[in-house]
Task: structure prediction
Amino acid sequence: MRVLLEAAAKAAIILATALLPAVGGLGLAADVSEPPGLWTGSMYGRTPSTLSGAAVVDLAALEALMAAQPLLLDVGPAQQKPENFPGNRPWLPIHRSIPSAVWMPGAGVAPLEADREQLFHRRIAELTHGDKARPIVVFCRPDCWGSWNAGKRLVMQGYTRVSWFPAGLDAWQEKHETAEVKPDTAWSVESTGGKAVER
Amino acid sequence: MKVSKIRPFALCLALGLALAGVAPVADVLAADPASVDASTQPERVARWKAIAAQIFGDREIEPTETLIKLDAPTRAEDAALVPVTLTMPEQDTIKSVYLVIDDNPSPLAAHVIFGPAAYPGSLQLRVRIDTYTNVHAVAETRDGRLFGTVAFVKASGGCSAPAGVSDEEAMTGMGEMRLRFAQGAAPGQPTQTTLMIRHPNFNGMQMDQVTRNYTPPRYIDKVSVSHGSSKVFDLETDISLSTHPVITFSLVADGNNPVNVSVSDTKNGRWEQSFEVPVTTN
Result:
């Protein structure tokens, strides 16, 4: 009897060990294939597990990459103040990100207006000092097509060391403190006048 | 009424935790001191000071571990539905309570002003939390002093989480209410009461998954509960309250009168409902 119980317990452990990664994988590796170009659907939703021409990094890989001082590019959305928000209640939007990240809200939206697209590439060229081999990490939060698109834009523009960090800020803040970042000035000054930006 | 949903990343997170529990991994990078007590990190402390100045002006907030307690999950399962419980053991001294979610764009999630028919010993709300943040609870005593406490809550994405259904469906039955009493209300005794309000509480940051447009904001800004001619509480709130708000509070039943609830939203919606209080004999 005792032997049987032990065997059952062992089997249960083996089963659980085998099942957990499989179930976990469902969330990540479900059949979302890469679109041929930029994704123009909803910016919020399940993303592919790959990005051709770019590396897909998890937190450990990102931590390893930090020594190379990559350009950290956050394309998460800015918080929109509701219309007619009462003036006597505090409205204090804050965007927390990986410390030293450059935040370009909505830079992963597709399609972008032509001048916005040009501005994006001009800003990235400035930030990388024209070095197409500079490591760049794009991210926002999980289920964010915006970061996939931003990475795709960079790959199509000829950047050779693009990393996409799909787990994004959620994974980062699990282990590290975040820092408040302001929108990149050049990007937001010529922005759409506070129009909603997607992540 | 509750729309059940598990967002994929929350599932991954839960599984990740389960895995971590099965096989703890040596973690060299977890040594970040900030993660030990993020609530005292200087940038977060500075933010709280700025928020407190806007809400309370120059009134001093004294730290307390007894006058108000804040119970929130250290790690929330669903950032759009985070249960927060405030406990005020010295209930007779409490005039009102504030719930502040520091890193939500509108940090003041709720201000609840208690009336004579309330038993201000505890209050539970369900809120949206946008990112890992400090949450502050501040009690205002009848003599006008403020006492505060803080908890760090790990929840992320609660403000932009789509309703999961179409906007039209989320708005069905808007303004319908239910009031549930934990047990029969013995006159003169505090009775735990749960108010459920059907309302999408659109905060303007959610995207309609069908049209891919941002859903225009429409949210509850005031809830008022009275018992007979006595006030139980007034709640002033905004976009941090969850879809289909649930508020648990205690009232002192008078054994006679109904409980009247009045709710208003930012699109001139106004709903009122009257509930009989079940009287118990034990």
Observations:
- The CA atoms of residues 105 and 130 of chain B lie 8 Å apart.
- The helical segments of chain B are 8-22, 42-56, 167-171.
